[in-house]
Amino acid sequence: MVSNEIKIRNEFFISALFVESNITTYISEKLKINDAVNSTLLGNREESINFNQKIELLLESEDLSIIDKSKLSVYREIHKELTANKNASSFEACFSSDDHNDDFLLILYTQNEYLPREEKLINACYQLIGEVSELVSNFTNNPEVKIKRKKRNFAIDTFKLSKFAFLFSFLFIR
Predict the structure, then answer these.
(1) Is 173 within a domain?
(2) Bridge-based pairing state of the strands 144-150 and 156-162
(3) Residue 21: partners with Cβ closer than 8 Å, 6 or more residues away
(4) What does the pLDDT look like over 42-85, one tens digit per residue?
(5) Residue 157 maps to a domain
(6) Residue 128 to residue 20: CA distance in whole angstroms
(7) Other beta carbons less than 10 A from residue 106's beta carbon
(8) Is residue 24 domain-resident?
């Protein structure tokens, strides 16, 4: 895969962490679960609900417009395809679903007709990432992500990143 294809895959997975974190926080607040990370339902255990199920809960639980539901649904499907097709030879080859998510992306986010299809898909995915991240952030009323890190003396230091800073924070982390 070319560098741009690897970057978009990485950015998609980073945004998925942001989206999942916001949904998990939202669900835990609705269900009054104090410790979502260690929760059997929402945590990172084998029996916990997965990313797809969390998106489905969000889609079924509240009123979203048809287009917003479509964006979230396609986002979930693309996440599933990227995970399933880790060894694909190109970004375009990752889109193997009969649902034609790639075509939906290109219809929703029109691109310059002279660009190669691969480049159109990459650009459309960037647009989808931005819109879904903002949609979930606004919907869950959670514009910040809290990150806890351990210092050398094992005290916990918590800091917050805005929703957009988090999405691009990986550029500065080395």
Answers:
(1) no
(2) antiparallel
(3) 145
(4) 877 777 888 888 888 888 876 688 888 889 998 998 888 888 87
(5) no
(6) 15
(7) 16
(8) yes
Give the pLDDT score at 144: 52
Euclidean distance between the first and the last CA atom of the chain, given in angstroms as a whole number:
22
Q: Output the CA–CA distances (angstroms, integers) from residue 165 to 47, 161, 168, 169, 171, in the order listed.
A: 32, 6, 5, 6, 10
- Quick one: tokens of 126? 């960037």
pTM, two decimals, is 0.74
DSSP assignment of 57-80 equals HHHHHS---HHHHHHHHHHHHHHH
pLDDT tens per residue, range 139-169? 887 555 544 444 444 444 444 445 444 454 4
CA distances from 117 to 53, 80, 95, 168 (A): 31, 21, 12, 25
In a domain, 161, yes or no: no
Structural domain boundaries enclosing 11: 3-143
How many domains does one find in the chain? 1
**Is 35 strand, coil or helix?**
coil
